[in-house]
Amino acid sequence: MNHDPPPTLALTAGEPAGIGPDIVANIAGRNIPAKIICIADPKVIDARAKTLGLEVRIIQCDKLSTAPTHQPGSLVVLPVRTGAQVIPGTLDVNNADYVMKCLDIAVAAAKSGKVDAIVTGPVHKGVINDAGFAFTGHTEHLAKDLTPEHRPVMMLVSGTLRVALATTHIALSDVPRTLTTTGLMDVIEVVDEALKRQFDIQHPRIGVCGLNPHAGENGHFGHEDREIIAPAIASAEHKGITILGPIPADTAFAPRTRACIDAYVTMYHDQGLPVVKALSFGEIVNITLGLPILRTSVDHGTAIELAGSGKANSESLYAALIAAINLVKTRDQ
Length: 333
Description:
CATH architecture of the largest domain: 3-Layer(aba) Sandwich
Helix content: 25-40%
Number of helices: 11
Shape: globular
CATH topology of the largest domain: Isopropylmalate Dehydrogenase
CATH class of the largest domain: Alpha Beta
Radius of gyration: 20 Å
Mean pLDDT: 92
Order of helices and strands: EHEHEEHEHHEEHHEHEHEHEEH
Strand order of the largest sheet: 3-4-2-1-5-12-11-6-7-10-8-9
Number of domains: 2
C-alpha cells in the first residue's frame, strides 16, 4: 500500500470568460488523488458551476499549506478577484491582470516549494496583449519572465506519442531564421533529459523532423536541414543521445516510425501539433520541459463560444492533473 502523501497542485482556471471555469467546475466532481488548490475568483467558479447545473462546494483557502486532499464535489480555491464582471463568452481586457496574477501566484508557489506542480487552464493571448502585457504563451512567460535562467521546451503528450517543439508561438516566416544548431541542440538535450527523469525511459530514442519538404532533399529545397539540423543531430549523437533524423515530416509520424521513437522534436508549432491533436484531441497534456518547476496544461484554447454551454470537454484538464501527479511521483522516486 502506498502511504506517500498526495502531491499538492496549483490549478489556474485561465481566461474567466472562456471554458476554463467550466472545465474546472467539471473536474471538481472527479476523484483525483492530490491536494488541488484552484487559484481563481471563487465567485466565477461558483457562478459557472450553477450555470452548468453542477453542485460544487467551494472551500476558500487563504494559505496553500492548509489545503485538504481533494474530495469529489468540492473545490479548494485560493481567492483572487477579477477586475470586471465576468460574462461567459464575452472577453474583457480588464480581466487580463487577474489572469496574469493567478499564473504568477501559482508559479511563485511552485518555485518556493509550497506546491509540487502547477496545472494551467487556457488563456486568451489576444486579450492579454491588448491589456498591455507582452505575452506569447504560458511556455515563454514561464521562462522569460519568471525563470529566465532556464530554456523551456513545449511538449504535447498522448500516451506514448510525445511531440516537442524547437520553436513555439512565432510566425512561420520567422522559423528559419530562429533555428540555430546550438538552440536545437539545447532542445534535444532537454527532451532527452526529460524522457529519462520525468518519463523513466532509460534509453530514449528521439526523432528530429526536417524543416523543409523531404528534409531539404540534400539542399535542393532549402539549406536549413543540411546546415542547421543535421549538425545538431551529429552533436547529439556525439554526446551519446540515440537520435534519428532529419526525418521528412510528411512520413515522420507513420505507424512504423512512431513505434521506434519515444519523442519527436519538430521545428515549428504547426508541424508537430496537428498530428497529435488529430489523433487524440481533448485527451492531450501539454508539458513544459526544462524548467525548475513542473507544469502541465490542457491541449486546447479558451473556446469562448462554448463558455457556459455545458459542451466543454474537461478530459484534457483531468489528464493534465493526472500527468502532474505522475510527474511528481517520478521526480520524487
